Amino acid sequence: MDEFLRSVEATVFASGEPLSVNEIALHVGEGDVAAALAELAERYQGHGIELVERGGRWHFQTAPDLAHLLRRTREEPRRLSKAATETLAIIAYHEPVSRAEIEAIRGVQISKGTLDVLMEAGWVRTAGRREVPGRPLLYATTADFLTHFGLASRKDLPGIDDLKAAGLLDPLEETLFQMQADEESDEQLESESEED
């Protein structure tokens, strides 16, 4: 393959968008750009990627019969809403937790869609039902949640000191967080003393 052909190939490959023959010529200098593109298109036929021309502009693309392999990698990651982020944090710190408990901690109702988004992402799962009237569903995090956030276990979640150091707690939140931590500690001590 001659140097000019390689230059045309590299220019089209490196471009983030399709290029016209004139735009390619600006990069590679003198030569028959159209003939080089035609030769490259022929060489790439039957390969995993192809050089194609659409509307007078050239670009590389995945061969149409292989496009299905890349759909998953091209999906844009969804940004979580503030409500979903708060809900995920509550589930992570308090699991297993019911919807009513999540709402009590957040102070507002959560939409069904919020939990659906977290379950679709694979970060939250149902974890049985609470043995109280109405038998509400319980929610817990999954192994995918731990993997995605780089945690070995829930014990690796940041504690109150870490959150304070990062400036993520205002004084009211800090007080509420500490009260919840104290309640959990008291419950754990009670269950340990009952076992003795």
From TrEMBL:
Biological process annotations from GO: cell division; chromosome separation
Encoding gene per record: scpB
InterPro entries reported in the protein's UniProt record: ScpB_csome_segregation (IPR005234), WH-like_DNA-bd_sf (IPR036388), WH_DNA-bd_sf (IPR036390)
PANTHER family attached to this UniProt entry: SEGREGATION AND CONDENSATION PROTEIN B (PTHR34298)
Protein name: SMC-Scp complex subunit ScpB
Keywords of this entry: Cell cycle, Cell division, Chromosome partition, Cytoplasm
